[in-house]
Amino acid sequence: MTSTNQAVTRLDGPDKVTGRARYAVEYGANDVAYAWPVQATCARGRLDRAETDAALAVPGVLDVLTHENVLRLHADGEISPAHMGALPDLLLLQSKDLVFRGQLVAAVIAETPEAAREGAAAVVVVTEAEHARLELTVGDDEAIVPDITNDLSPGHVARGDADRDFADAPVRLDTTYSTAANFAMPMEPHAAMATWDGDRLTVHASDQGPPWTAMTLAGLLGLPPSNVEVVAEYVGGGFGSKAAPRPPIMLAVLAARLVGRPVKVALNRQQSTSLTTYRGPSRQRIRIGAGTDGRISSVIHETTGQTSRLTTYADQTVSATRLMYRAEHCRTTTNVLPLDVPTPAWVRAPGEAPGMFALESAMDELAVQLGMDPIELRVLNEPETDPESGLPFTSRNLVSCLRIGAERFGWSDRRPEPGATSDGRWRLGMGVAAATYPHYLFPSTATARVDSAHRYTVRIGAADIGTGARTALHQIAADALKVPMSDVRIELGRASHGSAPFAGGSMGTASWGAAIESACRELRRRISAGGGIPDEGLEAGAETLEVMTPSNFSRHAYGAHFAAVRVDRDTGEVQVDRMLGVFATGRIINPLTAKSQAVGAMIMGMGMALMEAAEPDTRFGGFVTQDLAGYHVPAHADVRDIDAMFLTEEDPNLGPIAGRGVGEIGIVGTAAAITNAIHNATGIRIKDLPVRAENLLLRVAVKAGER
Amino acid sequence: MKPLSYARPRTQAEAAALVRRSPDAVFIAGGTNLTDLMKLDVVTPDLLVDVQDLDLTELTHHEWGTVVGAGVTNAGLAGDIGIRRRYPLVSEAILAGASGQIRNAASIAGNLLQRTRCGYFQDVTKPCNKRSPGSGCPAIAGAHRELGVLGTSEHCVATHPSDMAVALAALDAVVRVRRATGSVSALTLDELYRLPGDRPDRDTTLEPGDLVTAVELPAPTGAPSRYRKVRDRTSFAFALVSVAAMLKVEDGVAVDVRLAYGGVAPRPWRARTAEAALLGERPTDSLITQALQAEFATARPLPDNAFKINLAASLTRAVVRDLAPAQKAGR
Ligand SMILES: Cc1cc2nc3c(=O)[nH]c(=O)nc-3n(C[C@H](O)[C@H](O)[C@H](O)COP(=O)(O)OP(=O)(O)OC[C@H]3O[C@@H](n4cnc5c(N)ncnc54)[C@H](O)[C@@H]3O)c2cc1C
Ligand code: SF4
To answer: pLDDT by residue (tens digit) across A470-484?
Structure first.
């Protein structure tokens, strides 16, 4: 029996629920001190000075980190290429320019967190505030089209002449959408403990990728990479926000350097809103040109997002649009407006999540306009090859996802006319949306050891941020070694285990798994070549550079979301009765943890649709929403019947593990399935997320025609 | 965090004296609101005077009504069988608020005296007249979707966030207070809560050292009741608008009608104008609409919370529709 393809429960579950699993700031250290940030209260300006006398007089305060005593960082040092966008925010206190409210302007280091905090309140920050631009607007002169967006595709991409085709198309849809800023807000806030030993540095960090983080820290600190160890054995979630080192990690490092003691930093929720990134808001416009038979000939997708003054960050909001449907003509344009705001960055499916809300809502609008079933419209426009690259798909089972999902969900019970189904005071409706996510693979290293007692140890620099990766990799290792899981120990979460990609981009299991498989295979080869295991054991390492060369295929995962909602006729409140996600993501290593990922992402998609809004403070900067009492994520009562299933898919062109990641596709398209269902229930088209009761209230009542 | 002391007196007189001694001393009950505000530096006490040993946990039912000690927990009150039988509105309102854990810790007095959830009030780096008198009210031109439309002023548009208090307002509850001086008062909710006017820093008419000891509920009227709350998620969110409604219909006309609203005003809003318009009339949708229009005639809606007026009307029509036919069927 193999270990993979089995629903193995999380091996670290008991350690987590009993508190044995240790998270970043739970590690002990002798003589540890605590740092508390002092943050800018203007959105734009210049720091004149930070007066520290009163803070230094607070009992227990050791020192105050300021722009005057901070270690100079090597802004041009060699860092992980994945962290280019994160770099400017890491240059803490290196400049006196203030570019967003909440920016770090000093930090107080003390014997206790309480003293550090009291000291921080006593620091007098003298700044010259300037007029700040805080509001995202569309069509602004200062907006730019970036050379590249987050997925490295250009800000402007065109095939054919979409604008001309659209102008002449028999059926035209021209529609706009917006999405709110969203916080990642993982359960464990960003936290780190830094310990210097001469010019060697160890950071226990809540981080999604210890090896890359170590490389970036080394580069910025001017240290040889081997001098920096980053440990992230357990991480309480990240959702992308911890896939690069963020200011809390660097603050611990700089503060520890200043006081010559280990320093812990643990952010609270309020601080997290400005020092850990967020998903930026989007304003989107979609135009679709089609024939009267529903065949799409042109798609134009434009988006405007915001970035900070520090870096030009742009989500790949429009990328999926280029390959979803057969459209001879396509243009996508990304605009970013630099504002005096915290830097937005990665949050679960950055770009795909907001972008597919728009595209999949537009498809629903088009179906209504054409009088077609929305599933049939998608099937009709299914491309044979990737419309963007012209490459063949390794596999593209979108149609199967739609068909199988429709069957399972009871789509045939849906009445296409809006408002046709009700249950007492509730209007009922069903909606569908498609999903996609790219398949990324990154080179990784891994080692496998065996001792004379036939005990195996597999090491990799990967981080399990709560996804179940530790368990899935253990399963892969056991199968590759052809032994039961109980004979194998898996060690992860350390930079010193060797280079490995971060837990992000849904590429972890496939990339790490390939390295583990290859190290384990090599170890078995050595065992049989040596005719047994010597007393000192055997070790084999692998580096998967070679298997990662891009193949001549278009490699993406696909899926379909179904939602059944009810909308209260009297109040506009929405409840999601059922959701089903059907995904084609290749081989599934562990059906249990994979399903948890998909269901979790679908719940997060429900949050994006119905409640998650980080309200920008357009007067003072930063956000008005600053805690989880005000930033609503779905509560248990919101989560009723949510199911996810994976199609059996054998795809030899996905790399050694033959699986695509499952971490993100569950949040792509989810919001559209819900708002499309709301349209089916009420006839009201939701264009702005999140849905608010007031946007449905009066119109549902009128629609109901009962008064 | 600044250092502070903690005291757990045994008598009410001692407790009051402790709070009076320092301007920065406060009572603490469950601490679910106070400690949050302390973490935010919104409240910076130097002394916490714990009320848990002050013998405030009475919960007794009498023919003339019910006495609920100020120290009874929200969960304890909501779950009490006598309350569920006699005043189901109170149970429904409490259970519509907060979470199981918070309700287990939260007290009745603390619930009544919890502070507004306005985002500016909670952020000491921004102006706010309620927290820092005279500094301004950024909510009016800023984020106010959740804030009030009735009883507000140009100085503050905050709402009182409690659900329980809305039910208590509908039930004509009276709050018993032991004054710092030792005298005892009984206040209606309208007497307890102040409207902001130009002093939004004062939520209530209580003076430092005044201890809430109990809430008294008059004998149940037997009128069918309902608490309904509209919010941004299905649980664990404060009200956008809530209504506590009691309605007794005889021969098609309303013979007893009480309406109180949450989420719309600086205090639980007893809608006496609307009640008067409905009393003795058939509670039709159009009459309710008119009654609510009259009630909200003095409203000062802001761009992002004006919807609350329509929502309150729509919610009231729905609740009345639920309450009225139930009686025709002889319930
Ligand atoms: C995340 C979250 C969500 C919530 N959601 C809701 C909701 O949906 N609906 C809702 O109604 N509530 C909600 N609450 C608020 C909750 O109901 C209150 O926090 C709670 O009722 C306060 O009670 P406490 O005993 O903990 O008060 P404390 O925090 O101990 O005290 C609150 C105030 O009352 C004063 N005080 C306490 N006892 C006395 C006394 N005997 N005499 C005089 N003064 C006294 C204190 O000095 C303090 O000023 C929520 C709270 C949180 C944190
Ligand atoms: S509404 Fe009241 S609490 Fe809110 S900012 Fe204005 S003054 Fe402060």
So the answer is: 999 999 999 999 999
| Closest ligand 1 atom to Cα of B94 | 11
Domain that holds residue B312: 225-329
Q: Which of A548, A573, A600 is the endpoint of a domain? A: A548
Rounded distance, CA A319 to CA A282, Å? 14
Cβ–Cβ below 8 Å for A571 and B41: no
The model's pTM: 0.97
Using the structure block, give the residue that is written with the tokens 């997320």: A689
Chain A residues close to B318, C-beta within 8 Å: 425, 569-571
Cα gap B251→B232, rounded to integer Å: 38
Is A504's Cβ below 8 Å from some Cβ in B? no
Q: Are strands B25-28 and B47-50 parallel, antiparallel or unpaired?
A: parallel
ipTM above 0.90, yes or no: yes
Residues in chain B closer than 8 A to A707 (CB atoms): 285, 317
**Of A575, A630, A698, Cβ closest to residue B234:** A575
Residue-wise burial string across A644-656, b where 16 or more C-beta atoms lie within 10 A, e elsewhere: bbbbebebebbbb
Question: Mean pLDDT of all residues in chain A?
Answer: 95
Residue A144 included in any domain: no
Respond yes or no: is residue A233 known to be catalytic: no
What angle is formed at CA B324 by the lines to CA B322 and CA B325, rounded to 5 degrees? Answer: 80
CA A501 to chain centre: 15
Strands (E), B75-179: 174-178
A632: which DSSP letter? -
Choose among B141, B311, B318: nearest Cβ to A619. B141
CA A32 to chain centre: 32
| Ligand 1 site, residue B153, Cβ cutoff 6 A | no
Q: Give the model confidence (pLDDT) of A655-664 as tens digits.
A: 887 777 888 9
Residues constituting chain A: 707
B46: domain CATH number?
3.30.43.10
